[in-house]
Design goal:
The protein is α/β, with parallel strands linked by helices and 219 residues long. It has eight helices and eleven strands.
Amino acid sequence: MRLLLVEDDPMLGSSIRKGFYRYGFIVDWVQDGLAAEVALATESYSMILLDLGLPKKSGLDVLKKFRSAKNNAPVIILSARDAVANRIEGLDAGADDYLDKPFDLDELAARIRALLRRSSGRTSSVLQHGDITFDQARTAVYYHGKSIVLGARELALLSALMENPGAILSRTQLMHRIYGWSDDIESNTIEVHIHTLRKKLSPGVIQNIRGIGYKLADE
């Protein structure tokens, strides 16, 4: 999944971006409120992680504008402002969760998964399709009960397909899910990842709908 991180602390921002890679989370990172508004106006994100004390425009103002535009993506506020009044203000402005700094990266990842489950109507972090089991909390994939080791991009790609098992996702949609702004992308990168997943799982597990995109084979 692709997330937007709005955080002006270089050390924290870099830590979240690098740390989340192992979960298969793709993170676009901006460091001020105006840059956040540009990103939100031009890209679609599964989740926004938002600091409040930002240069150029406050995180609270960014949040209010985002919600006033009827955008429903879940938002988690990450802030050193830990007073009850600050948490109430952030939640009432449209945030779905509020996490005080400093925080544990694993806890933040768990909160992200919980919010995404609720927004998609799921109750479990385990995705199941046919003989494929994907435990998102443990970033563990099993095929016919056997553990399969996947890279971060492969996890992100499989997650996109398993979260929408009946949908055909275009090459562009898949690229959007597994690559961020700063990533170098080869022209055949999606095809390479699809090929690798087929080798590790089964040749027929992912179908190519010619001229349209890719989908998981029917159960």
